[in-house]
């Protein structure tokens, strides 16, 4: 064995070719599955895109580093499925740029957090986590209720997302700032337009409890309340599995 290695090292060209050969084997196993990705990734024609307010909330989620302690990827392990729900599907993240699957769980996975708690719970939890979860080590984000949400750049953000494949229409992009404000106020004249553009199931209400102001808390809670609810692919798969049994 050592003799072979010694001979390779003395013949640099053969050594390089051996490295290329071994690396090619690993590369083949990584690249080959990509040619069948259309057959392995689920398709959901009814999946909707994030609203401008939810996009703003997602950006705040990234800005505050929430992804460092919470994953958004439920693995196929039995204990995870029993605790968090159906394992995550690739189609559920197709409009996520960047992906926020995460790699560490200081807190629970939140891939299917949407609708699990009320808006008031989320506001209280973000304002002071110990008020609702006494043992929590999560920091407080009190400034979210004080900071007004910036909306003038939302059209540009939707346009950028369209360039990487998210199907935002010209109408959605042009009305992004107004739609963000209307989604957080059910009495806003544009609230019906938001529902028309993004679907009747879109959450439209004052997420922070104050319809008179549009805050960063509105945006982040709107985002948390839609997690796991953009697509029903997992629910359909679970139902099909139950029928098969």
Automatic annotation (TrEMBL):
The chain crosses the membrane at residues 12-35. It holds the Pfam family FixO. PROSITE patterns: CYTC. It comes from the Bacteria. InterPro entries: Cyt_c-like_dom (IPR009056), Cyt_c-like_dom_sf (IPR036909), Cyt_c_oxidase_monohaem-su/FixO (IPR003468). GO terms for molecular function: electron transfer activity; heme binding; metal ion binding. Keywords: Heme, Iron, Membrane, Metal-binding, Transmembrane, Transmembrane helix. Gene3D superfamilies: 6.10.250.2250, Cytochrome c-like domain (1.10.760.10). Residues 52-228 form the Cytochrome c domain. This is Cytochrome C oxidase, mono-heme subunit/FixO. It comes from Oceanibacterium hippocampi.
């Amino acid at each position: 064995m050592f003799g072979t290695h010694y001979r390779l090292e003395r013949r640099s060209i053969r050594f390089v070719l051996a490295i290329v050969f071994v690396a090619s084997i690993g590369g083949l196993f990584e690249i080959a599955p990509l040619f069948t990705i259309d057959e392995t990734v689920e398709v959901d024609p009814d999946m909707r895109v994030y609203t401008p307010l939810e996009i703003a909330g997602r950006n705040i989620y990234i800005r505050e580093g929430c992804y460092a302690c919470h994953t958004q990827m439920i693995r196929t392990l039995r204990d995870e499925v029993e605790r968090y729900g159906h394992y995550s599907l690739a189609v559920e993240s197709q409009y996520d740029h960047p992906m926020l699957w995460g790699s560490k769980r200081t807190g629970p996975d939140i891939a299917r957090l949407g609708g699990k708690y009320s808006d008031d719970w989320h506001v209280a939890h973000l304002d002071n986590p110990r008020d609702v979860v006494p043992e929590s080590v999560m920091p407080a984000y009190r400034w979210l209720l004080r900071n007004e949400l910036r909306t003038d750049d939302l059209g540009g953000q939707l346009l950028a997302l369209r360039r990487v494949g998210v199907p935002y229409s010209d109408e959605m992009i042009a009305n992004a700032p107004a739609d963000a404000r209307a989604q957080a106020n059910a009495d806003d004249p544009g609230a019906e337009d938001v529902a028309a553009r993004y679907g009747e199931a879109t959450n439209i209400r004052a997420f922070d409890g104050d319809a008179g102001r549009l805050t960063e808390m509105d945006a982040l809670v709107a985002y948390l309340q839609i997690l796991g609810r953009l697509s029903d692919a997992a629910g359909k798969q679970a139902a099909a599995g139950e029928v098969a049994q």
